[in-house]
Amino acid sequence: MPISTITQPQVAPLLKPRTTDSHKGMFGSVWVIGGGSGMVGAALLAGRAALKMGAGCVHIGLLASDAPSVDFVQPELMLHRIEQGLPAVGDVLAIGCGMGVSAHAQRLLHDALWLDAPLVLDADALNLIAAHTDLATLLRERTAATVLTPHPGEAAHLLACRTADIQSDRPAAARRLAEKFRCTVALKGATSLVSSEDGTLYQNTTGNPGMSAPGMGDVLAGMIAAFLAQGVATTDAAKLAVYLHGAAGDALAEFGVKLGMTASELTDSARHVLNQWQTK
Ligand SMILES: NC(=O)C1=CN([C@@H]2O[C@H](COP(=O)(O)OP(=O)(O)OC[C@H]3O[C@@H](n4cnc5c(N)ncnc54)[C@H](O)[C@@H]3O)[C@@H](O)[C@H]2O)[C@@H](O)CC1
Ligand SMILES: Nc1ncnc2c1ncn2[C@@H]1O[C@H](COP(=O)(O)OP(=O)(O)O)[C@@H](O)[C@H]1O
């Protein structure tokens, strides 16, 4: 099956310009759940990215016992420490960034998979699904939109193979994941691939090695969640986010920021590129 390349003219119009009488209630609420001990930053990066991609409001549920109650860098975010069960999440939930694989994380993911709301599953949510067949079954049986964002290591866990096997035939791996879990899949890496649930493949050509840096995947998860919350269709949201994420990295590289690029800078760059598209 041919693989089409994701282009800017395809994805830029997916997010409609705002009407003059718009209000924040029109742009959806995103919840991010993750941030276990030592990895609170991963959830903050995802939440900040969702906010800066235009989500109407963003809540972050953190698992760490020493979780902060406010993000002083981004006080618009609403932070919650999750001690017990899943809170009433909003329109879209991104779960897994820095979450860890504790029994608590496993229970939260189990309850999230039951939700009739769009989900973005990243990082440890994917590792938990790979390790627990009951979670994998719940995922396959979901009817609401779901996007998986594995890097090659996580894709290998999900398909019970080696990372090298994933890399040797990435299109086949992306399609197998989409078909196995009945989801949209963004298989990350240099030249990320998006597969729709039916196995239709799209290849991304934006991005560069400067992006091989911590937290870049967390930012991507937050971006996808924000676009879903704003009403972009599932596979389109993944294509838009993957293209824009890479284009934001390319804009930084053109500016001379290659080695040492940070995920926080990439988020600001993505906001700039997105706004440029909207004014054209
Ligand atoms: N500030 C933070 O709190 C951060 C937390 N993070 C969290 O840390 C947890 C562990 O995630 P990691 O991804 O670091 O560790 P993992 O152990 O899941 O994956 C790293 C391994 O996966 C393979 N891999 C990943 N990308 C690959 C590629 N493009 N090509 C080939 N192989 C590849 C490699 O074998 C690599 O060593 C996640 O929950 C994540 O969200 C990270 O996102 C980094 C930042
Ligand atoms: N060489 C590269 N070229 C293009 N994109 C890259 C490159 N290296 C990393 N990326 C992108 O950066 C992100 C890294 O995500 P991930 O591996 O989950 O990192 P983390 O777990 O640290 O957040 C992915 O979206 C990936 O496509």
UniProtKB/TrEMBL annotation:
E.C. no: 4.2.1.136
Domain of life: Bacteria
GO terms, molecular function: ADP-dependent NAD(P)H-hydrate dehydratase activity; ATP binding; NAD(P)HX epimerase activity
Keywords of the record: ATP-binding, Lyase, Membrane, NAD, NADP, Nucleotide-binding, Transmembrane, Transmembrane helix
Residues at which (6S)-NADPHX binds: 42, 98, 151, 218
Binding site for AMP: 188-192, 217
Keyword Membrane: yes
Enzyme's top EC category: lyase
TM ranges: 26-46
Pfam families hit by this protein: Carb_kinase (PF01256)
Catalytic activity, reaction form: (6S)-NADHX + ADP = AMP + phosphate + NADH + H(+); (6S)-NADPHX + ADP = AMP + phosphate + NADPH + H(+)
Record domain YjeF C-terminal: where: 7-277
Similarity annotation: Belongs to the NnrD/CARKD family.
Assembly: Homotetramer.
NCBIfam families: yjeF_cterm (TIGR00196)
Protein name according to UniProt: ADP-dependent (S)-NAD(P)H-hydrate dehydratase
